[in-house]
Predict the structure.
Amino acid sequence: MNWTEIDTWIVITGALISMACAIPGTFLQLNKQSMLGDAISHAVLPGIAIAFLFSGTKDPLPMLIGAACAGLFTGLLSNIIHRHGKVDTGAALGVVFCSLFALGLVLIRVAADHVDLDPSCVLYGAIELAVIDGGVVPQVVWLSAGILVLNLGMTLIFYKELRLAAFDPRFAETVGIPSGVLQYGLTISTAITTVVAFESVGSILVIAMLIVPGATALLLSHRVGGVLGISLLLAAVSAIGGHIAAISVAPAILAGLTGHTEIGALSSAGMMAACTGLIFFVVLAGKVVAGSFNRPRLMGAGTSEIATAPLAHD
């Protein structure tokens, strides 16, 4: 394995953006809204395309503004469909994000004819190219680090409110915590994080970064703080392991299976996402074998069911 400076920046970028995605993704799962992360990662595409068409540039600020607006619109529209159309929440999100994603693809194609924008890069990411910009520290590293610091900062500031809203949103409302405002804040955070991740891992693979580290952490910890810490650690490990697998392990395995020794490096972003899934299934298998896989509950001021593990107040 020939390790270069570019490989180092790829791993750093992947780890930063994976950890940044894991933070809002964990709270989405605690609020039983994992589907919202999927919806936002697709629905922000028209916001990005419109920002490109109006600004004529790929500068981060117009992209983030467009994404934040699209993310809010996704949440508001799905709520309207759910409440007034009497449609299931998941179905409402499906209608919204499928429609907006299709619109986004059309607009991205139009925007690509006016500015230097590669639709495949937006969809699948190109972390290997994103770190090559001639700077001492690539711009994508600064952006990834910035969104991670922002997400960590907002989590620390509103940790008590986020935790209580996840345990019992009705009780949170009664003690003066605006769970609706927190929800829209989480939606905006997810949208902005998704846009920053586009250049690195693309709109499709970012879903794995949002959901899988948190889902794995919920199998290992019963405390909100523990879930967050483990999800951050797993996100970083997945980024490192995924890139190493992409440039050495996976090509070697494929060469042995096919007999073609000329197989080159695979997509680092794709292998990072695959690595998160592999870790999840290993942990799940370990829980099943150990006989400790129980149907979970969220333990708090008011008890409510969640997806994977019994949690307790920190």
